[in-house]
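Async update (no meeting this week)

Hi team, since we skipped the sync, here's where things stand on the single-chain job. The sequence we agreed to prioritize is pasted below, unchanged from the tracker. I ran it this morning and attached the output directly underneath so nobody has to dig for it. Comments welcome in thread, and please keep replies under the output.
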Amino acid sequence: MAVITQVKPASGRYSRTRFLWTAAVFLLAVFTLALQPQRAAAAPYAAMVIDARTGEVLHSRNADTRLHPASLTKMMTLYIAFEAVRNGEITLDTKVRISRNAAAEPPSKLGLKSGQRIAFRYLIRAAAVKSANDAATAIGETLSGSEAAFARRMNRTAKALGMSRTTFKNAHGLTASGHLSTASDMTTLGRHLLYDYPEYYNLFSRRSTHAGIREVPNTNRRLLAAYRGADGIKTGYTRAAGFNLVASAKRGNERIIATVFGGKSTVSRNAKVAELLDLGFRRAPSRAALRKPQRPAYQGAGNVVVADADDGPSHGVAGKTIRVTGQVNTSLRPKTRPGKGESPVLVAALEEALQTPPAEKAGAADETAAAEAAEAVAETAEDPIENVQTVSADGAARGDALRESIAVALAEAEAEPLPAAEEAAPAVIAAVQKVPFTGLRPVARPASLAAASPEPEPVVVTRLSTSGGRYWGVNVGLYTSRYQAEKVLLRTALAELETLDGTLRKVAKTRRGFEANFLGMTQEQAELACRRLNARNVTCEPIGPS
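Output:
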């Protein structure tokens, strides 16, 4: 019995321990199951793949289904920010005051404080790389005054881009009623970001960046590191949306954009995007003519379309202008030029003769009118003949002949009075026309005669540009060795001397390889060089100041 009494307590302790472990495992299982709907409660799957060069659709599934875009929304926020800088609404160095509303946005966020001032460029970096909600809201409030007004501008821009099934309610993409888009529309927006503002596209490929107050990592860094040629663009996640991504990759002359909505996790989404990018590279032709999308007219801060210019961002000196006045509505009759050549006596005499009835053109009146007209013609003809400068002896002879012809005509008019003064002028004109005009130098304009100074037309500066400074360059590819990159630079420089002459050839080592760059160019030179190189199927991307 003593043995039994000792065993019973040990058995009871073992039962309690086993019960506690069983309960703990059960609770853990319940907790795990409770968390699964939060990750898997994403919207239906949607995907789209296009050839970025032509816009050709290579794959599509539920691409027109309206779903929650999550932080893919920030692509539109950034598109409008780039547009505002290009058109002079704001500069990258403008200090922005952070509102209480922006500072209160939930994560992901940069950590901005209410009342803090920060350069606009850092808000762009934080929204593009970190996907910071507070930075996105601050961008919207800065450009439009309020988040609601900025949402209206986002919708106007979406309509101009052809994003017909997209409606925005905020600048960051957190779930809101009616805030919806499609895989097709987001693919379109990604393509416009790439080609409409290439000078800023490098932001999306940065593994990390300094956002003014701290270094922030890229939310898309895993795909950028794992997939060869990947260089953007934007991730997004909310419970309602799932794991979204618009990605772009370039290999040689081919560039593919792939979009996924409704991923189940970051890992599975990235794997699906890599699969779609591979599909795109298999289906896309090796060579295709680049057909960039047409950039829409600048919508402006309000609902007024403003003329758009083609050059780069505005923190420089040169300004592009458009004229306010255009078409001429009336054609004014030129006034008589004042000077010694005027002959009011002759004009008055001829008008009087033309207005006199035929019955009154007789006798002394006729003789008087004819004599006055002839005298006036003589006075008028005197100055031009004296001012004629001949360039040769032949010209001098012709000038003498002209004087003699006029003198003969005047003598005939005095000898035989004409019935009307109006007949004196044709006689003189006919005499002048007998002498051909050759070798006479135009008479210099009298110094006393001031040229009319038309009122300058008002002009409007649409934007500023840094194209006057040589802060731009072009990238002609990423290579596995420095030797290969230098070889390509030399070959390209020799093939395109007209636009690359005088530039600096530089090989930049990165984690992905060696970039071949030409530096020290203006924006116009960089864009022209890339247009010419792309026409030869040579890889080329402008590099702008950031």
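Quick observations from my side:
The two ends are 88 Å apart (CA to CA).
The mean pLDDT is 78.
Reply here if anything looks off.
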